[in-house]
Sequence to fold (468 residues):
Amino acid sequence: MPRAPRPLYAGTRVRELRGRLRMSQVAMAERLGISVSYLSQIETDGRPLTAAVSLALAAAFPADWSGIDEDEGARLLAGLAEAAAEALLPEPPPEPEMLARAVEQQPALARRFVAMHAAWRRAEDQLQRLDDAYDTGAPSGGRLPWDEVRDWFHDAGNYVDLIDTAAEAIGDALEPGPDALAERLRDRHRITLRTPGTESAPLRAFDPAHRILTLDPAQAPESRAFQLAHQLARIELAEEIGQVLARATMPSVEATRLLSIGLANYAAGAILMPYEAFRAEARRLRHDIDRLRRRFAVSFEQACHRLSTLQRPDQRGTPFFFCRVDMAGNITKRHSATRLQFARFGGACPLWIMHEAVAIPDRILTQLAEMPEGTRYVAIAKGLVKESGSYARSPRRYAVALGCEIGEAKDFVYADHLDLTRTDAATPIGVSCRICPREGCEQRAFPPSGRALRIDPERREVVPYRFD
Fold:
């Protein structure tokens, strides 16, 4: 006979969670779908957590509740619930109580189901990597150093704890004001800052022999601050960056040097936007990017990028994806803490709103998008222009996109005016035409790989073929 489940009393943890989020009992009870009196009894350990309430906490506050209960059964239950809720499965997921019984009575089977789901996710990622290699004409083992570094950050979950924690300490210690970074470089490291009037000046150039840092005077204040933070990170976090590089074992000298630059850039963002302060303010402002960038004196792109890195295990932020595309549609940056993964080498779905945003600078566009397997995302995109400072140099035009899964939309201010309930309100999108199964898409550029084509010479539609 299976033993009865052990009651889980977690009143202190639930109460502490509510305190950290600065929520009233009424607000939390509404989010969990329970009564205020029931929540009060849970917080005073008058009633244990049921499987339904435990899963509701994980669903409503995934960034904060995850990791609070270290019980193996609770972790397995959360993993099983995530796997059972996979949008690709046609049937609705089982009730929480049924999942809890499965974990209690058949733990080996539950673990196997969770492992199979994880293996399927890895296979999907591998399929995308092969599709990317096809786009570039390179074999799967012949990636360029730039691609190696991007994949390293992707595999690291776009969070590097050793560097992020050390950078946060620097950022928290900085004096307020626009000159704090320059003053720290001057006072602690005897570095002189110069901004020449020449049009050919690089964005940043450091002369270590004479301790002179030269910055392009045409840069916006936010870009200038980022270059100063980058230089500060290269000096004060050299040991931490070196430790990460030693563990990374990149395949070439070029990739190692590129990763070194990438880690310093990562640290620069963490200095300008210290983890806990930025995470707390992002939650308070419901991830309003314009308000965030004014609060931390950063650019729109920098704030979006930082939101995608808030993956500290015990203090996770809302899971976001972030990407940047140029005028030709090439994805030049991509990071995702969600299930969505972008094509690595361009070829992004043309139905993504970010392609429209490139042509409409300084205006935020919103979109409810749905992947082929049914997962929905709320996304924003904004076209940006970086001035060159000279008529002789073309400005840089691109767009950035930020989004989260629909379950996080309540914490994303840009979702407030979207209809998230209508089944036909979402734009059907995909990762790449070659791995997208949608049959009726008129924006398709290539047929899907491995599908037999049906071509009728007597019939012409927008897409000149169908497939099985």
